[in-house]
Amino acid sequence: MTRGSTLPAHRLPHLTGRLPIPAQTRTPPATQVEKFNAAPVEEALDALLSCLHSLCWARRIADHRPYPTVEALLAASDEATYDLTAPDLAEALTAESLPTLPEGTYEAAHTALDAAHAAYEARFGHVFVICLDEVPPKEALDFALESIRSRLTNDPEDERVVAAEELRRLARGRLMSHLRGAGL
């Protein structure tokens, strides 16, 4: 015994006087990466420098436009960050500031973070950088304090590598934010 479809076959009645839906003839709006690709060089550089304050990094990304996809742009950002020299990293680190703490953080937390940062800056000669993009806001303070304290034990070369990785993550997140909302 073979079983066929249990649903009856339906035929559409002939629809006289009705027009089919026309094919889309409008050009779809430019994608985020297309806007970035089309932006004037100075506008692209300004946007990139707000993501990571390294002129070498920003020029490299701007000069290699157009990017076919957002993923290609992010890969180029990562690669350019990995290739930064020590002076380029120093330039980028100079423009960074302490991570912002969630609203309502108690005063003692600010004091603890300020003290840990002062010790960090005295040891390494630059601001402490950390990407908190994937950390829940209520855990950000504890995560930042734990990270700064553990990184204080690094030797300067190891910490340079860690700081460069945090800068890469920060640049990537900021670049995505710009692509989503800044109208590049």
Task: Determine the mean pLDDT.
Answer: 83
- CATH H-level superfamily title: Oxo-4-hydroxy-4-carboxy-5-ureidoimidazoline decarboxylase
CATH architecture: Orthogonal Bundle
Main sheet, how many strands, which sense, barrel? none
- Percent of residues in beta strands? under 5%
Helix and strand composition category: mainly alpha
* Count of spatially separate domains: 1
Cα distance spanning the termini: 64 Å
Shape type: globular
CATH topology: UraD-like
In total, the number of strands is 0
Low-confidence stretches: 1-13, 19-30
Total helical elements: 8
CATH class: Mainly Alpha
Structure summary:
With 184 residues, the protein is mainly alpha-helical. The chain has a single domain (32-181), classed as UraD-like (Orthogonal Bundle).
Describe this structure in words.
The protein is built from eight helices and no strands. With 184 residues, it is mostly helical. It has a single domain (32-181), classed as UraD-like (Orthogonal Bundle), CATH 1.10.3330.10.
Keyphrases for this structure?
0% strand, 184 residues, mainly alpha, globular, UraD-like, disordered N terminus
Indicate the topology.
Elements (H helix, E strand, L loop, with lengths): L31 H7 L2 H11 L3 H9 L6 H13 L3 H9 L12 H18 L15 H12 L4 H26 L3
Helix pairs in contact: 2-3, 2-8, 3-4, 4-8, 6-7
